[in-house]
Amino acid sequence: MRRWLEYSAEELEWISARREMPRRELHAAFCAHFERTDVSADHLKALCTRKGWKTGRTGCFAPGSTPANKGRKMPFNANSARTQFKKGSVPPNAKPLGHERVNVYGYVEISVAETNPYTGGSRRYVTKHKLLWERANGPLPEGMRLKCLDGDKLNTDPSNWLAIPTALAPRLNGRFGRGYDAAPAELKPVIMATAQLEHAARERRKGGRDAGAAPRRVAARRQKVEAPESPSRTGAPQAEPSSALHRRVISELRRPEFDLPTDKIDLLVSEHWRTACTAARRQRALTRQPLHRCVAVELSRLARRRDGAGAAISKSALNGR
């Protein structure tokens, strides 16, 4: 049975002090110094691994290091020179400007003189049907795509392509579509018109919800207390109230029992609307008066308090008589 190799303390200290040496050089120096013939390079490497003695090298080029072949030129070799690229040479698979090809999706692509955003080259491939369509109709609007009318993607004539919303495409083909591309030619216009009608109805419903056209939401918005628009920098009051509640409050404040000048009412509403509405809601719960009446009473109190006349309001104004 093979036993473990043993190292003396002196040998271990000697190896540890020279741990940064390459392992082959370290093994040769160790065997020559201690005359050990039973220790192989793998034994010494395993010992350093167990002890955690690393060379300190990462195997990567350190920043700022000088390459070993810096400034050297490749020696001339006739065989390698024969297969090297020459200056100005054109690759045999290079395609000329205007070359056409069919991509994996079945669309025709054409090489144009535009900067390639991926490689920086002077040419790039674009879809031919889109190029011709934009030349005839202008840039394709955002959110739109081109749809082949006759189902033949190789037919790049601009009259064969229609700009449709991107959201309309799934209604023509795909899992929930009507199989537009595979349909007979006489049914394609019907399928297209039906899909466009459904899409327009869908967008109309979405727009109605976003605009709050439902009667329930309109009524709720009218009941909501909104702050008026801020006055201009010149301090001029608003020309018109911003809601029906504003109009009713201003009309209420013009009644004789409040005794407020007309030119002061608009400015009063602009400055104290939020405060008056908050207090009016609490007052409404106690007096059961209409909201516009409670807001008018609170605004009148604020006006009298600001003018130093106290917060007293006549009972007739408070009770709505």
From TrEMBL:
Protein keywords: Endonuclease, Hydrolase, Nuclease
Annotated InterPro entries: HNH_nuc
Region Disordered, annotated ranges: 199-245
Organism per entry: Albimonas pacifica
GO molecular function: endonuclease activity
Protein name: HNH endonuclease
Keyword hit for Hydrolase: yes
Lineage of source species: Bacteria, Pseudomonadati, Pseudomonadota, Alphaproteobacteria, Rhodobacterales
Domain HNH nuclease: 128-160
Pfam families given in the database record: HNH_3
Domain of life: Bacteria
Record flagged with keyword Nuclease: yes
